[in-house]
Amino acid sequence: MLTVANVAKSFGGLHVLHDVNFTAESASITALIGPNGAGKSTLVNIIGGVLRPDGGTVHLDGEDVTGVPSATAFAKGITRTFQISGNVGALNVFESVAVAAYRQARGYREANALARAELERFELWEYRDQQLGSIPTALTRLVDFARAMVSRPKVLLLDEVMAGLTPHEVDLVIRQVGTCREQGVAIVMIEHVMQAVEALADHVVVLNQGQVIASGSLGDVSRNAEVVEAYLGTPPSERDEVRVPADNPAKG
Ligand SMILES: Nc1ncnc2c1ncn2[C@@H]1O[C@H](COP(=O)(O)OP(=O)(O)OP(=O)(O)O)[C@@H](O)[C@H]1O
Known about the structure:
Layout: E1 2-11, E2 14-24, E3 28-33, H1 40-47, E4 55-60, E5 63-64, H2 70-76, E6 78-80, H3 93-101, H4 108-121, H5 137-150, E7 155-159, H6 167-182, E8 186-190, H7 194-200, E9 203-208, E10 211-216, H8 218-222, H9 225-232
Helix pairs in contact: 3-4, 3-5, 4-5
């Protein structure tokens, strides 16, 4: 289980996160949503060890991992994807996934086999010999996701992994995220594709201006007046029932 407690972060005079609290259970999907600039990526960067918080703590299964470097976070099982995929040196698609497989493989043969299986699951096998820089950006996000999955994380941080994907690819990723949950992973997903949030989220955390303004089921947060105001700029007093970002009877 991932526990984020009282996390705060400023960039110079800009207070980006204030007193952020939430937990992500194993075998569950937490969707982190909120308007642009709310602080979602900053929070995920803190959990993944890319940024140090100014205050607060991050615990993984009870162990304090606050401010550990990203390589340490990865070694402990916190894996993330990036909104803009990084270029992993001069590696091709296959190599970039195989490198990540070493975290849990007993040698290069096993790592290669795991990488192949993951690429096939993501329908990326045909791209295996291509340099990461030569495939479409949306596909690099899929490779990024496959790379994250192959390391068998305890916590998977997905940063807008669906952006720019075709409907078929969105369905594929939704299935893969679901599989990941079945494998016991605590998934924290920043996602603007509401089809994915509706299909997947067990729990939704809404950030606005660096604060958690609502959390619960998608149905619950969609009816929260403060959430409506954050998304639509409508004063809470003028609306009491809303569909933001989308109502979700299934999760309601
Ligand atoms: N390294 C940085 N230095 C200065 N300001 C930053 C830095 N990173 C983020 N910010 C600012 O912090 C605020 C929150 O940014 P962040 O990217 O975390 O928001 P977000 O909710 O992920 O937004 P989006 O949905 O647009 O990606 C923004 O005002 C952003 O400009």
